[in-house]
Amino acid sequence: METHSQGSDTDIIATLVRPVPITAALKGCKDVADLAHLEQAISLLRQILNTSSESGTARLDVLNLLVVALLIRFNYDPRSGDMGEIIMLQAEIISLAQGLARGDSAATLQSSTISEHYQLAQSIVTSVRQCADVKLLDEAVSFQREALLMQPQGHERAMSLVALADALCLRFNHGKNVQDLAESIAVLREAHQLQHNHAFLLVAALLRRCNLDGDLRTFIEVGTMYKTACETDKSGIRDWESGQEQMANFRRLNDIPALHYAIRLFRQSIHHISFQHEQRPTVLFSLSKALFIRYSVDHNPDDLDQTIKIDRNILLCRPHRDEHRSYVLSHLGVALLYNFECAGDPDDIDNAIVLLDEALELISSEHHDRLVFLDNLAEAFSRRFGYRGSVQDIDKAVAMAELALQETTDGDSQRPHRLQMLGQCLSRRYEETGCAPDIEKAIGLVNDAVNLLPSGHPQEMKFRTELGSTYLRGFNRSIHRSNPTIDLAALNKSISDLQSFIANSDPGHPDIPYAKGTMAAMLLSKFEDIGDFSDITTAISLLVDTIRDTPDDDSYKPNHLHKLGRALTIRFHRRGQISDIDEAISVLQRAIQAWPYKLPDDHVFLLDLGAAFAERFSYLGVSADIDEAIAIQRRAVAASQQGNPQMANRVASLGCWLLSRFIQTKSVSDVDEAVATLQSALQMVDENDPVKPDILMNLATSLENQSECRREDPDIEKWIQLLSEAVRITSDGNPAKRGYLNNLGNSHLRRFEHLHSSTDIDEAISAYHSSLRLIPQDHPDHPATQLNLGKALSVQLDREPNLKALEATISQFSSAALSRYGPPRVRLQAASRWARYAWKYDHASVLQASAAALDLLPRVAWLGLPLPDRHRELIRAGDLMNAAAAICIERADYVKAVEWLEQGRSIVWGQLLQMRSPVDELRNADSDLAKHLASRFEQITRQLQTSGPGIISSHSDSSARYRILVSEWEDIIGEIRNIDGFHSFLLPKKLEEFVISQNMGPIVVLNISTFRCDALIVISHPFEVRHVPLSNFSYNDAQRLRKSLYDLLKFNGRNIIDDRLSGYQENERTHIDTDQEFDLRDWAVAKARQYS
């Protein structure tokens, strides 16, 4: 941003009036053409005051606005009578301000009261000068006297004295009361003693008295004082000229001591030059510009504060249509922009835009500095867009930048800057609106800017970095579109170019941290698209280096921290390493703390922190994390302005997180709010909004959960309608589409359960097939979708059994079960269904299916499942091992039947009795290698369990990393099996080895399944397994006896295994007769004799 002025000096001149924020709307009313709107504003403000019961600061704000509006109108028509109303309003403001200030310190109250009295008196004096209403002068003098009584010694008191003298002289001119003149002279003498640059005012007052009384002594005093004042002014001008020379030295040599010396000389000059001297505003402006330059060097906020105060006071001295006023307006506007960056007060940026706009209006269209004013206004609108996200602001920024570029000749040294500025504004607008011509034009403009710069130009690094940012914005908005504006090849080229330029640049270049941060963001987006982990690793490394090399007081450091936090969150989402998300949350919190002012509730830093909390909740399930995420998102939604393009996305995220919390807590209020929130988000988006499909899918999921929670009849038609719409508007290139198709198939299956329509089965099969076509075979989602397709095909098979349907069903279940990829639980479910249908329809793969299921069982039982899920799977595992053994018995493979039963028994009982797992044994082995492998094995297993999209998220996941994890998992198992004592790690033991090693006698094994019931007798010497079919004993007989045994043991107070073992729970205690105990024992003895 360019400027023609900088600085401000509290020690030089006091603020004459309390700054009253003038809104853009009222500023626009200053034009004559807008006086009708001004009348409406005045009428509305009066109506609010007359009808509203508001008090305190709210009423004070309305009063101040009405005073501003009336003063604007008074400037156009001094005879309007507005001044009388202004005086009454100011009196109320004073009274109200005093009341509000009573809770503050005495000094604060006194300062507020002085300011109010002073402002009211100045308003009256202005009115008298413009419309000669002398009746008001008594009130002006009275208010000035009251202000003076409260004013302590110092230069501010001198200003109050001058103001009182001015009012007294004005009253003397109208009333010719000599006492007024005498008092004004006395007051000016006191002021002159405090500040010698009031001499000319005192000379003028003394001359008036000479004209009245002809006193020679007074005339001599006037002559002496006039000569002294002239000499003082000359001294002040000489100091100013010397200061200008020092500023020239600073600009030529970048001599910082010359800058400090120039500021000192300007201050001396102001101290000597009288307030009435025509050069005084120029000297003040020189000081202001010098102070602002020094602020840009050492960032001392005092210099910026002084700049703002001096510029505001200069504006009081400059006529409203003075062209020189435009420079002060522009300079003050730029200073307020910088103050906004430091303090974060939104009033600063609003007022800056008002001032810069007014400056542009005042300067002539032919003036060479008009282009600088356009640049500054474009920058201001662009910054406010970054703060508030209003598309109107970025539209205005584009308009200003376009106008500046159009008026810049080809050879102008500022043309590269204006090309870059317009390109930046267009790319930021594209990022918000998705208008393709914007990004295409932006890339061309920034590229032209880079090419116009000579090699080695100080701005070259900045411009090349902006070119990278432009490509990045285009790529981010184009991902998953069939015809992307910026494709991966273009992004790669941009990354390569920026990387080469950084490598060939001076390592100490001040823009290198910013360039590295941009390159990291580009690599991060590339990773999100294709999932190459080298990209995100490099991005994180770049950001860590950038943060290390960036000083803590650098204004861009919080942005680097934010980028790192986001990168760690994304890596956690793909890799599942808890340290990543913990560090991401910590880094994002540091970014927020490092920001120089309080962030608005909808700032991207806070939004990404909320997303990180939600990510950690999805992994650990800690309720505090999802509570924090929801709280942040609620505040963001409340703070988002109507029409904000991100509103729908924020509302949709809130709905998703409420649904996530419901899934954990089952709170009806959460699912009800999730439904209402997602319905609201759906109403905010149009057909082409990229977030709409996700909203549709999550709303369908929420409605399904709501009906289940409330035990209401499900509105499956609505779910299908929503999911069908999500599928329809999503391109095949978007990875989320496969999730929508999968859920659509699930909904059709649910409707089939209610209506038994074959059409629903056909629709479900079609949806699953379409989803599979979009999923790579090595993607972790592939087995789950195959399992769902197999379920749908099995329903069709059961309705109309035929060989083709059987082969299709077995094919899907077996492919899912035997896949190297996908969560083990999913593959185990597929294997179980494969075994069931192979048995049911006598398929040749029945033993293979059972073997696949039992191979997966230890991975599900021992590794990575939460405790409730683990017990649920173990109950299913008991049925599975019995069914597998029955299949072996049916095929007369009795040894394998016993081996499978023993494998299942060791897993189930080991878990229920909290025995050590194979991983525990590995961890406790006396070997550093074993301990390392155990730790790495558990870590990768957890990552495999949590890889792939969650229930709600439909974001793209990379199968590349999943393949790497699977390969690592298999390699580690191979290494573990090379350690002594772990050759059979996660493998079933051979029965013959086990029996012979234990030197046991005959063992009788009973196998009870829904297929058949059998006894197997294992003999160790010689090794043999004999089969005894239990033809007269059924699965239902066994269930009845197990229940009787359970109740008997419970009645007798025995220490029995938890209800989880039996898979059911009695609601009431059952009385057991002791005769039943003998009946059960006799039955068991009889059966043993029968088959011995």
Describe this structure in words.
- It comes from Mycena venus.
- This is CHAT domain-containing protein.
- By secondary structure, this protein is mainly α.
- Among the domains are: 11-194, Serine Threonine Protein Phosphatase 5, Tetratricopeptide repeat (Alpha Horseshoe), CATH 1.25.40; 203-277, no CATH class; 486-612, Serine Threonine Protein Phosphatase 5, Tetratricopeptide repeat (Alpha Horseshoe).
- 73% of the residues lie in helices and 2% in strands.
- A hairpin with a 4-residue loop joins strand 2 (1013-1019) and strand 3.
- Helix 36 (824-840) runs antiparallel to helix 37.
- The protein is elongated.
- Mean pLDDT is 77; it is low at 2-33, 101-114, 863-867, 912-916, 947-958 and 1054-1092.
Please tell me the overall pLDDT: 77
Please tally the β strands and state the result.
3
CATH architectural arrangement of the domain at 11-194: Alpha Horseshoe
**Highest CATH level, the class of the domain at 11-194:** Mainly Alpha
Strand order of the largest sheet: 1-2-3
Labels describing this entry:
TPR-like_helical_dom_sf, 45 helices, Serine Threonine Protein Phosphatase 5, Tetratricopeptide repeat, CHAT domain-containing protein, single chain, 1092 residues, disordered N terminus
Write the layout of secondary structure elements.
Elements: H1 24-28, H2 35-51, H3 57-76, H4 82-101, H5 106-131, H6 137-150, H7 155-175, H8 178-194, H9 199-213, H10 216-253, H11 256-272, H12 280-298, H13 301-317, H14 323-343, H15 346-362, H16 370-388, H17 391-406, H18 415-433, H19 436-452, H20 460-478, H21 488-503, H22 512-530, H23 533-549, H24 557-575, H25 578-594, H26 604-620, H27 623-639, H28 647-665, H29 668-684, H30 692-710, H31 716-728, H32 736-755, H33 758-774, H34 782-799, H35 803-818, H36 824-840, H37 846-862, H38 867-890, H39 894-912, H40 918-923, H41 928-946, H42 959-976, H43 991-998, E1 1003-1008, E2 1013-1019, E3 1024-1029, H44 1035-1051, H45 1074-1090
Antiparallel strand pairs: 1-2, 2-3
Protein name: CHAT domain-containing protein
